[in-house]
Specification:
This protein folds into two domains: 37-178, no CATH class; 300-620, YVTN repeat-like/Quinoprotein amine dehydrogenase (Methylamine Dehydrogenase, Chain H, 7 Propeller), CATH 2.130.10. Helices cover 31% and strands 26% of the residues. It contains twelve helices and 28 strands. Strands 1-28-27-26 form a four-stranded antiparallel β-sheet. It has a four-stranded antiparallel β-sheet with strand order 2-3-4-5, with no helix packed on it. α4 (58-69) packs antiparallel against α5 (78-101), α5 (78-101) runs antiparallel to α6 (105-120) and α5 packs antiparallel against α8. It is globular and about 85 Å long. WD repeats lie at residues 306-347, 494-527, 587-621. It holds the Pfam family CTLH_Armc9. Residues 273-285 have a biased composition (Basic and acidic residues).
Length: 621
């Protein structure tokens, strides 16, 4: 306690020295009502049982335990944290019991109304208690009788006293005094991690260079004629015997007719369009062509890894400001967190959805609302400020799977892409017919259903333009649909792929649209000349058809519209250079496949979620 008092005196001296008199008065006032009561056990017990419980101040009671929980953040505090959670459970139960003893039935109903979502996270502890307001004499009920006894209350107070006495004493530094030291330690660790990452990147680059040299020597030795694959005009030799060489050769031999090579299995009408578009952007014959294996690794400014999930990551999204991140896993858990220790963590939360999370979408105008779509047709609206679910919707029984959700950038509406179910081996075969519903975000009622025709194939991905007037949607039959949101009708559409389209998004100037097919082909389509391809890549090495059996791949474009990041069935993901003469980059490796990607709304920073249960935020130079 002497350390706390000394710190308080230092703060007073600083405020007096700087002449901050009004701040000093507020500081003295806050100290007089300080929630921790200087960690004096008797005062804390009196605060809990004589003030908060006796006067039904539930919000302050919960706030006190939240404050105590913040004192146990390190791994060595895990046992103490677990004990505190059990004490909180008993104290909240006594809050209910005290209200019933006092005849305040209204306070009991208010308790479950305000804390219902929080209590349901501990379902097994509270499920039976939701019935207690409606039991005539709960003190005689065998299930609750013990909680109305004086012995149980005395035991609770004694346990609470022992916990506080053994935790907050003069030999234990309270968490509030550890904050400064911890921040300095974190800063030092971040610098160490940054240096280690740079060293690791150098070693990996050196190793890969050596492997390339060995591979080159083997090719020369085999006499297959591919020793000069990086030179222009050397793509006329016979096919190499190995599959890996075939893939490399196929990528390096498309200098003058790259689009034609991508569309070797397309229909005759589409190949004609590809011929036409190949004349636009194929003046690169004089440049060196590179495969993804030759892409240099990204130069990292810093990287943060979040390990708060217990299963494969299904979605990860930056918020509108980029300060907060929402990530979900296939076990139905959503976590909201921050990657920067200087950013307030007031929105941090864990949300349990009870089903696999298939879609996440932040409100575009603030970091307040997060929409969560699940594989069983549920849509939850989470208020990040209030930390509670403000609406829980369900699609119709005919369309029980949510495939995507998108909020309008202007209007208070969002669109849900739902689908019926059917049997199949791949993720696309398991989706049936489509449903596109527009919802109002104030009434939480459906406004309209966008027309798709009779028995339309499932919609896999949605994207609004900048003013929310146009909605792009991709489908499992290879089509891209465009909707006028004001009229609520489809205005155009075209066959983009010979396979299901997995992801779609608008280009930077919104004069084009990008699409990713399940065959691994990426196209940039002109919106001025429908059907014309402006740019394309084959990323089937990363998004091979087999990987679509487990996940639906997606693409993300940075804020400048120059870099396109793609999910990957491998441990690395490609970052294609859409504009300029550079070919692309490679991400740092996860330990398993990369299942979700997103770019920061303003900074050169991206996020990758992986099947290894981790989420990484990477800032690049």
């Amino acid at each position: 306690m002497e350390n706390i008092r000394y710190a308080e005196e230092l703060v007073r001296e600083f405020l007096v020295f700087r002449g901050f008199t009004s701040t000093l008065q507020a500081y003295e006032s806050e100290l007089s009502t300080e929630i921790g009561r200087n960690f004096q056990v008797d005062k804390i017990l009196d605060l809990v049982f004589s003030e908060y419980i006796a006067k039904y101040q539930l919000d302050r009671l919960v706030g006190l335990f939240t404050f105590f929980k913040q004192c146990f953040t390190s791994p060595v505090d895990a046992e103490l944290f677990s004990t505190l959670v059990k004490l909180e459970l008993s104290v909240l139960r006594y809050y209910v019991v005290n209200a019933l003893k006092s005849g305040r039935q209204d306070k009991v109903i208010e308790f479950f109304g305000e804390s219902g979502n929080y209590l349901m996270q501990k379902r097994e502890d509270w499920l039976a208690w939701f019935a207690i307001p409606y039991i005539k004499n709960p003190s005689f009920d065998p299930q609750f009788r013990v909680y109305f006894s004086k012995e149980w209350l005395d035991t609770l107070i004694l346990s609470f006293r022992n916990f506080l006495s053994g935790t907050f004493n003069d030999t234990r530094i309270p968490a509030l005094l550890r904050i400064s030291t911890e921040k300095n330690t974190i800063k030092s660790l971040k610098n160490d991690i940054k240096q280690l990452n740079n060293k690791l990147a150098e070693l990996q680059a050196s190793l890969e260079a050596k492997e390339d040299e060995i591979s080159q020597l083997r090719r020369n030795y085999n006499g297959a004629g591919y020793g000069s694959k990086n030179l222009v005009g050397t793509s006329t030799a016979s096919a190499p015997p190995k599959q890996e060489m075939s893939e490399n050769y196929e990528e390096s031999s498309v200098s003058s007719s790259r689009i034609q090579g991508f569309d070797s299995r397309s229909s005759s009408t589409r190949s004609g369009k590809l011929h036409e578009s190949s004349e636009i952007r194929h003046t690169e014959d004089e440049q060196v062509l590179m495969t993804e294996e030759d892409f240099p690794e990204v130069k990292v400014d810093f990287q943060e890894t979040f390990l708060g999930h217990n299963s494969s990551i299904s979605q990860c999204r930056f918020s509108a400001s980029g300060s907060n991140i929402a990530s979900s896993s296939i076990d139905g858990t959503v976590r909201i967190w921050t990657y920067d220790s200087s950013t307030p963590s007031s929105k941090n939360a864990t949300i349990y959805c009870g089903a696999e999370v298939s879609a996440l979408s932040w409100e575009c105008r603030s970091d307040r609302l997060l929409l969560i779509g699940t594989a069983n047709g549920g849509i939850k609206a989470w208020n990040a400020d209030a930390k509670r679910v403000v609406c829980d919707l369900n699609t119709s029984r005919d369309f029980p799977s949510i495939l995507d959700l998108k909020c309008s950038p202007v209007e208070p509406v969002f669109v849900s892409a739902a689908a019926s179910r059917r049997r199949g081996s791949t993720i696309f075969e398991r989706t049936g017919f489509a449903n596109l519903t527009v919802w109002h975000m104030k009434t939480w009622k459906p406004l309209t259903v966008l027309p798709l025709g009779e028995d339309p194939p499932a919609i896999t991905s949605l994207c609004f333009n900048h003013n929310g007037k146009i909605l792009a949607a991709s489908a499992t039959d290879g089509m891209i649909h465009m909707f006028d949101m004001s009229a609520g009708m489809q205005i155009t559409g075209w066959p983009a792929h010979d396979s299901p389209v997995s992801s779609v998004l608008f280009g930077p100037a919104e004069t084009s649209i990008f699409s990713l097919g399940s065959d691994g082909k990426i196209f940039e389509w002109s919106l001025h000349n429908q059907g014309q391809i402006l740019w394309s890549r084959d990323c089937s090495r990363f998004c091979n058809p087999e990987s679509f059996n487990k996940q639906m791949h997606e693409i993300a474009l940075d804020s400048n519209g120059k870099r396109l990041l793609v999910t990957s069935g491998l441990v690395r993901a490609p970052i294609y250079q859409v504009q300029g003469h550079e070919s692309g980059l490679r991400t740092l490796p996860h330990s398993s496949s990369i299942t979700s990607v997103d770019w920061h709304p303003t900074l050169p920073m991206y996020i990758t979620g992986s099947a290894d249960h981790s989420v990484r935020v990477t800032s690049i130079i």
